[in-house]
Amino acid sequence: MQTTSGVLLSRFAMELVTALVTAVIGAIVCFGSMEFGIGWGDAGPQPGYFPFYVGVILIAASSVNLVTGIVRHRNRLESFLTTEQAHRVVAFFGPMFLFVLVSSFIGVYVSMILYLFGAMVFQGGYRPHKAIAVGVIAAILNYFLFEVWFKVPLLKGTTRELPSSDA
Predict the structure, then answer these.
(1) What are the beta bridge partners of residue 81?
(2) Which of 3-7, 53-57, 98-102 comes out lowest in average pLDDT?
(3) Which of 5, 49, 78, 115 would give a disulfide with 45, using CB separation of 3.0 to 4.6 Å?
């Protein structure tokens, strides 16, 4: 058992939330499959028959997990997520989220350079000139890989191709 100092989320709370979320997913599956018919027709099972019973099984399993979580773990003080762990998760996913967000404005290639620079300098402890070099090389290689060889255009953001002067 871990200490409760710095606990952001307990195991008990997470088990309850997970059981409730999976039960809701099962209910959505059941409700959606009723639109297609859940009975047995002349040609066999209707299209919603199997999804409906998968949803029922999901609800039943979630109910068992909910009851088990309440009976076994309500008095335990085990942590699921501590403050330190949350900082690590944010340090990992935060820059990736910013990369995706910024890509739509300034394009994938410039965002890639900024992301790699930030990750290498602030998380990896590399010197800025090495980080910038790796970012630029990675962006150039990805440009040739996707745009030139695979012919798959990636986001350019607000950067546009200049009009040709074939007037």
Answers:
(1) 9
(2) 3-7
(3) 49
